[in-house]
Task: structure prediction
Amino acid sequence: MPANGIGRATTVTHEELLDAFLEHIPDHVYFKDRESRFVRISRALAVHFGLSDPAQAVGRADFDMFTAEHAEQAFKDEQDIIHTGTPVIAKEEKETWPDGRENWASTTKVPLRDRNGNIIGTVGISRDITERRRAQQELQEYKTHLEELVTARTAELIRANEALASSNAELEKFAYVASHDLQEPLRMVASYTQLLARRYRGKLDADADEFIGFAVDGASRMQQLIQALLSYSRLTTQGRPLELTESQAACNTAIMNLRQSIEESGAVVRVASLPKVYADSTQLTQLFQNLIGNAIKYRSEQSPTIQVAARSESGQCIVSIQDNGIGIEPQYSDRIFEMFQRLHTRKEYAGTGIGLAICRKIVERHGGRIWVESEPGRGATFLFTIRQAEGTQE
Ligand code: ADP
Result:
């Protein structure tokens, strides 16, 4: 025998190896004879059975250890293995113990053969997977709970959206009908107050002249507001489908429409190359017109210079209209997009306060958003996003 001791390992018998194995393995391991009676079991299984010595299990069967139902199933499985030679691999089963304890096990049972290959029983290895099953079940419950939550929340959102859409549609209808039907009587009031003014100016007293003046002014202002409201509600009622549109052309038309105020103000409007987008071209023209029109209207002492440009960002086009006008305090940058919201008196700048509300509605109808970046005295840049045609560059 070699002095280094390596050879001594060969003196360990199979029996000793098996003893050590069965003594220390944490899994439930058992050998059974053809009648499903225990021949050997691991200590871990003996402990589970409540036996102080694994040898006490020899000769006993599952019927002595588990509930009858469980024992019958195990017996049937083992008899199948013995008669067919087909193993059961990693079968997950619930084990119920006579004292009511329950646990989950992953069980593998294979035929036990003698040297000649005859099946003389079964070998089983059963691993406790209760923790894993519990975690899986918790995860599943959590998932189901989450799915239920998501479904409920989605349904809620859909309902809220539908309600919002229908109330929006109703509001729009109301605005349209009201403004449309108000036009006729208002035209009457306006023309008769104008008639009064023409016929009786200087013939009554000074107060009367002043009052008639107020009435004429009020009526014409109301006409402007109603016109504005009507054009606002027509954005949806008379909006056309979005089509491939040259935004450059829409911008040029807007500039053409504004040529009088461009000439009068001496404004310089520079337009960089603009891409093809999906739009209702009339509305896109109106959008450019309102924004460039405002850039001219809200000019500072400097002569107005306006720059229209576009850049693409993740399939979207961002169009910017930059001016060197009076600018806007950042705290008003949301308010100005609301209907009838103005930052100036009519004496300072004429207007109804609907221009930017129309811009926002157009942009939103096109699936984009609009915002302003500005500081007082340093000009303003209005930006909006719009879907760009694939393959077109800025
Ligand atoms: P209106 O021009 O009729 O007042 P808008 O809705 O077009 O209505 O604009 C709302 C307000 O936003 C304006 O009263 C003005 O104070 C501000 N505004 C719009 N465009 C500009 C701009 N380019 N520069 C500075 N202020 C602007």
In short: The pocket of adenosine-5'-diphosphate is lined by residues 294-295, 298, 323, 325-328, 336, 342-344, 351-357, 380 (CB under 6 Å).
